[in-house]
Design brief:
Layout lengths: L5 E6 L11 H12 L3 E5 L8 E4 L16 E4 L2 E4 L6 E3 L12 E4 L3 H11 L5 E4 L7 H13 L3 E5 L12 E6 L13 H13 L10 E6 L5 H6 L4 H15 L6 E9 L2 H14 L7 E13 L2 E10 L2 H16 L8 E6 L6
Parallel strand pairs: 1-11, 2-9, 2-10, 8-9, 10-11
Antiparallel strand pairs: 3-7, 4-5, 5-6, 12-14, 12-15, 13-14
Length: 347
């Protein structure tokens, strides 16, 4: 019977990281390979780097269609937007001041792969992300190769974090646990807890003992700190109690009325008219219109109204009334709009 893995926090504040890895993580991976076992590294950022920036004027390459920076990719060498899938050649000089002092910011799976292939060159390395694996047949072939390789480094995004059995994985490194922690979405901590549990569950699944390293710059955050010592059920219960105190799902109900438009004024006008048309006594709290966290995506401006109530039935009634109001408005014909109950994201 497999024992639970040993979980350790690695405080990366003030550390000089190499391709996102601390010295402790690198040494642990090397020891794993020497023992003839497998190490799994989780980094939910594909590409080579998060963005490219000018060291002289601070210019950052941004997507022309989205409120987002473009990620640096090396294979092929270009800048990609991971939201609208647009791309452009990697610039040789700054678009703003023509300086050639451009540097990559952040770490992606391509950069981590390049470092590990050089640092631990004798270990087979398998990278699993949507750039390196296209389609189910390719994924199944890759997983079969992993099963047949006694010692190896497995590197990947969320594609690698769940649903797979790797009996020879005894070391798991979560390279950047903070990336999902700080988000305006109230589900951010829940998603991080699920992710930590899923990734940590890859280690020590057979008779071999497992070890998990969680790299973080927020070791004092309650969720991060307790992830190493408290069972999942206790952490989940604490999150549920906080939801109860705030009236958030599952101890309350949420919905959204969303509008996407090429002209943001059309989206704001439509939602304002819908809100005005709804009865003041609908029983739901209406917040907005307000912009989405990424206001412009794929050339469209995104605004929404958040609908909140302790009663799921009341939220349903409010959204039904919003649909009837929207269908009667001429402004609704110029835009794309919809309502959603239990939205996966409200930011």
């Amino acid at each position: 019977k497999a024992a639970l893995p040993t979980i350790r926090l690695v405080d990366t504040r003030g550390l000089a990281l190499t391709a996102g890895l601390s010295d402790q993580a690198i040494e642990t991976i090397e020891r794993t390979i020497v023992r003839g076992e497998q190490a799994l590294l989780f980094l939910n950022k594909r590409g080579f780097a998060r963005s490219i920036q000018c060291e002289d004027c601070g210019w950052t390459a941004e997507c022309k269609n989205c409120d987002s920076t473009m990620a640096v990719h090396r294979a092929p060498p270009q800048l990609n937007c991971h939201h609208c899938l647009s791309h452009r050649p990697t610039p040789r000089s700054c678009d703003h001041c023509n300086s050639i002092r451009l540097t990559s910011k952040g770490v992606g799976t391509e950069q981590l792969e390049a470092f590990l292939r050089q640092k631990i060159s004798d270990a087979p390395l398998f990278r699993v992300d949507s750039d390196s694996v296209s389609g189910l047949p390719a994924l199944n072939e890759l997983l079969s190769n992993i099963q047949e390789t006694p010692y190896a480094i497995l590197l990947g995004t969320q594609m690698l974090s769940k649903g797979h059995h790797f009996p020879r994985v005894t070391c798991v490194v979560i390279v950047d646990s903070d990336s999902l922690l700080f988000s305006p979405d109230f589900r951010a901590e829940e998603r991080l807890l699920q992710l930590l549990t899923q990734v940590a569950g890859r280690s020590g699944r057979a008779e071999l003992p497992g070890e998990v390293l969680i790299q973080t710059r927020s070791p004092d955050h309650p969720l991060i700190k307790n992830a190493a010592i408290a069972p999942y059920s206790d952490l989940a219960h604490a999150l549920l109690e906080r939801r109860r105190s705030l009236g958030l799902p599952p101890h309350g109900a949420l919905g959204v009325i969303r509008a996407d438009a090429k002209d943001e004024r059309d989206a704001i006008q439509f939602l304002s008219q819908v809100k005005e048309a709804l009865d003041a006594d609908v029983g739901s709290r209406l917040v907005g219109p307000m912009p989405a966290l990424m206001t412009r995506r794929a050339g469209l401006y995104r605004y929404h109204i958040v609908v909140q109530s302790q009663s799921r039935k009341t939220v349903h009634q409010t959204l039904k009334a919003a649909i009837n109001a929207g269908l009667s408005l001429k402004t609704g014909r110029k835009i794309s709009w919809f309502v959603e109950i239990d939205p996966t994201e409200i930011v």
